Amino acid sequence: MTDIPGFRPLYQQVREMFLRRISDGTWEPGRLLPSEQALAVELGVSQGTVRKALDSLAADNLLERRQGKGTYVAAVTPERSLFQFFRIARPGGERLTPSSGTAKTRVRAATGEERQRLGLSPGTEVIEIERTRAVDDKPIILETIIVARDRFPGLEGGDIPNALYALYQSEYGVNVTAANEELRAQAASTDEAAQLGIAEGTPLLAIDRLAYDLDGKPVEWRRSLCDTRELVYAVTLR
Amino acid sequence: MTDIPGFRPLYQQVREMFLRRISDGTWEPGRLLPSEQALAVELGVSQGTVRKALDSLAADNLLERRQGKGTYVAAVTPERSLFQFFRIARPGGERLTPSSGTAKTRVRAATGEERQRLGLSPGTEVIEIERTRAVDDKPIILETIIVARDRFPGLEGGDIPNALYALYQSEYGVNVTAANEELRAQAASTDEAAQLGIAEGTPLLAIDRLAYDLDGKPVEWRRSLCDTRELVYAVTLR
DNA sequence: TAGTGGTCTAGACCACACA
DNA sequence: GTGTGGTCTAGACCACTAA
Q1: Cystine design at A168: which of A174, B41, B211, B225 (Cβ 3.0–4.6 Å)?
Q2: Which residues of B192-210 are buried (b: 16+ CB within 10 A; e: fewer)?
Q3: Which residues, 6+ apart, have CB-to-CB distance to B69 below 8 Å?
Q4: What is the pLDDT at residue B58?
Q5: What is the pTM (predicted TM-score) of this model?
Q6: Distance in angstroms (rounded) separating the CA atoms of residues A1 and A42
Q7: Looking at residue A11, what is its pLDDT?
Q8: Is the C-beta atom of A170 closer than 7 angstroms to strand C?
Q9: Is residue B2 scored above 60 in pLDDT?
Q10: What is the full DSSP assignment across chain A?
Q11: B204 to chain A: nearest residue by CA?
């Protein structure tokens, strides 16, 4: 590495340089990276140091390594984004993928809470997306999604696909790589019950999600209301 | 390593050997391990290979490495076990630790579902523990815990501490290192409502946890009913 | 000062993919 | 066969800890 003050481990500096290249699009999703040896020569460090940086990024799902082929920038495929962030499953652990019904979108000024959660300035407009998601053709989830309009211009007009994060990446260059979720139990309101085809007051699982991009900035606020009479939210603790 | 057929990477074989030593108590919790160099000489591999095995175990919270001091077997301190498995927090993310009320224990034959979940043979007895847990002196969680009696003899008679997993380790040599949880929303029954001091029918968050030991065998089945009107279950996805 | 884990390097060989 | 990542080794120096 040509000239970096040595107060942080080399491999972390290399990691951060690679992270920047992914984040700013120099290395776009799906792209094959140069070989470890080539990167080592370019940066003037040993192959082992490059390897440690690449391994660490692969552990965070940002790169994919394939023996014999090379190292690729992770592409957020629809399946992948669902598998990574969709935690609803059948009791016992079987994973499943929901289908997405038609969505209603509107544009409006951000509320105070939305500005705070998404880190927006006053007066910013947001896009609100409402949709239901179904499993086995039964509506199970009622979803409300909030994103800043200036980050996703035109989103309100287009089709809303099942796997939104793949669209964020391919159309807007926004990589959702992490999220925090907060779960509560709450009773279904009249309106919510009607949309899910259940009785008013039925206990629903409410999931509040804040999704973050590669730079750690909040991208999307999503609230999901789930009918958990036949499905569960599955978590693995280690 | 003197004589191991080479069909798995060396560092994984070393990892498994170390795991066995932790699991069977050869290396008891809190113990200082021999230095990397000493382990490398003992096994006849390079220090780098030992390091890779130790790093991987440290990443799984089974070892603790302290620069300048050495590598220690992770001890399940009460704080640690709570921090690792207790996901209830205040909205916004602040972690908290509950206090534990008095517990009721009983011994009885295992039900079919309990036998299946815990992998028990017919006729096995289980210990059932019921208790409430409080935050800010308000009862928030109603907990039912099921363990096999032959694995925890005498547990039904003693004091039930707040951090049970620390007791499992210190008194019974059982290391809980992983768990699967399934979450649902459901209405409080008359009895549950009374114990939590809330109205019948209040939506509660039901958490079904199966906890596993180092060998991947199920150890405990725990069902927690949480009042989530002021608290949430927090998850980080990556 | 001596001993530990943490970082960095250099080079060897293996397993795999693909032309 | 050639090139890739995966594994393994050996040795150097650094940062931290404790006597």
Answers
A1: A174
A2: bbebbebeeebbbbbbbbb
A3: B32
A4: 93
A5: 0.89
A6: 8
A7: 94
A8: no
A9: no
A10: --S--TTS-HHHHHHHHHHHHHHTTSS-TTPBPPPHHHHHHHHTS-HHHHHHHHHHHHHTTSEEEETTTEEEEPP--HHHHHHHH--EE-TTS-B---EEEEEEEEEEEPPHHHHHHHTPPTT-EEEEEEEEEEETTEEEEEEEEEEETTTSTTTTTS---S-HHHHHHHHH---EEEEEEEEEEEEPPHHHHHHHTS-TT-EEEEEEEEEEETTS-EEEEEEEEE--SS-EEEEEE-
A11: A185
Distance in angstroms: CA A57, C1' D2: 27
List, for residues A97-120, the tens digit of each pLDDT value: 899 888 999 999 999 999 999 999
CB atoms A185 and B203 under 8 Å: yes
B86: part of which helix (H) or strand (E)? Answer: none
Answer yes or no: is A17 CB < 7 A from strand C.
no
Chain A residues close to B179, C-beta within 8 Å: 236-237
Distance in angstroms (rounded) separating the CA atoms of residues A21 and A14: 11
| Chain-chain contact of A235 with B60 (C-beta, under 8 angstroms) | no
Q: What is the mean pLDDT of residues A203-224?
A: 96
Which domains can be identified in chain B, with CATH numbers? 10-73 (1.10.10.10), 87-233 (3.40.1410.10)
